[in-house]
Design goal:
Elements: E1 11-17, H1 25-31, E2 40-44, H2 62-75, E3 85-91, H3 94-108, H4 133-137, H5 149-168, H6 173-183
Antiparallel strand pairs: 1-2, 1-3
Helix pairs in contact: 3-6
């Protein structure tokens, strides 16, 4: 990670972790059982995302650039190694991006979604704000407040909860059908 060759387009992506960080042992164990569960799912919308349907896909490198931003975030911390991550992505028409991201998050419940891993620093640095769960567990990103042991514990509990949910399987029949269809392409 990131992809070796730049590419044009917008779409969705999933990040996968295979390292030895103690907080992710449960996730790597599940993924090692012949299944792959993303640690994070995100999107990169194109230029026309808020302007209605446009049949053309984006010619900008929105998706590639967004994945690179995440690679930079991982590089900025000392407790994670970028080589322990892989990425899968799908270039989509803007009209389908938000739906695809929502489905992937609902089906896979990635641990980093909801931990403010993907939030961008907008305007002034967020140093005055509450530390994110992700930055509390993985301190070191520029422009982010350092977290506390308490917030890092909250992050670990969220990861454990998501892994437990994944391990229990999918009981909702609609989500199960989506999962089965997605896994045909895995």
């Amino acid at each position: 990670m990131p992809p070796s060759q730049p590419f044009a387009g917008a779409g969705v992506y999933a990040l996968y972790y295979s390292g030895s960080h103690p907080a992710y042992q449960g996730l790597t164990r599940l993924s090692g059982a012949g299944k792959s569960f993303p640690v994070y799912v995100g999107k990169a919308a194109g230029q026309s995302a808020k302007q209605g349907f446009n049949p053309a896909t984006s010619s900008a490198r929105k998706l590639y650039d967004r994945i690179n931003q995440h690679a930079d975030s991982i590089d900025a911390v000392s407790c994670l190694d970028k080589s322990d991550f892989s990425c899968r992505y799908l270039v989509l028409n803007d009209a389908y991006i938000a739906l695809a991201e929502s489905v992937l998050i609902s089906v896979f419940r990635p641990p980093w979604n909801g931990m403010s891993f993907g939030s961008k620093v907008v305007g002034k640095n967020r140093m005055g704000g509450r530390p994110s769960l992700w930055d509390s567990l993985h301190p070191g990103r520029a422009g982010r407040p350092a977290g506390s042991k308490s917030r890092a514990g909250d992050a670990r509990r969220l990861i454990d909860q998501r892994v437990s949910e994944l391990g229990a399987g999918i009981s909702d029949p609609v989500l199960r059908k989506m999962y089965d269809r997605i896994m045909r392409f895995a």
